[in-house]
């Protein structure tokens, strides 16, 4: 058994750490034993655990847990990138959220992480041409988590939704790698146009709570959008914007805003 654990730790250190934390959590809080075993320790891989969580949370009288589990297992089995993204997202939450002390927390307790993984399955379905099923997953994820992401949107890896409530991401939006956004962020359109109409968020961007980024505009890599801002025009790389409508108020303040999570305005123009 020790040999098997050592091999697993070498091949998949993230999942090995989750299992170790889960075993400790059961010892510390036996009343959660059934939940933790069913959600984590019962599964041989992180992909299987994510598929189980997806099916458990999104099942309803309209769609059974068994059917959703089969869909998720097929998605994770067909696209290794889904599991890789799930690991990158989990590490991002652990690294950036001071309320996250263990790897198992996002999988079991954080709706932002769970909503993002549900979107990833929906996006896979969209790519397979199974659009009605993708819309169903979007609907149930919105109902369950309060996060509404169109399955056609493109979202990179290492993304963190902090608190996540009321995040809305439109159909033609693109979100780069290593982005952090807080609750009530909207990546939306500005009217009824049907073509490319949503924002393009570069790598490493930090989007503060309640910010609205509207239209087919570009937000440059490693920029910051202050809480409550309404962004209607392109944002250069490595800048901070704030206000309604948003304007440049200074530099980003650090090399990796989405990782540092510093939301104070250290520099101002004029």
Automatic annotation (TrEMBL):
The keyword Transferase applies. One of its GO terms (biological process) is cysteine biosynthetic process from serine. Pathway: Amino-acid biosynthesis; L-cysteine biosynthesis; L-cysteine from L-serine: step 1/2. GO terms for molecular function: serine O-acetyltransferase activity. NCBIfam families: cysE, EPS_EpsC. Gene3D superfamilies: Hexapeptide repeat proteins, serine acetyltransferase, domain 1. The gene is cysE. GO terms for cellular component: cytoplasm. This is Serine acetyltransferase.
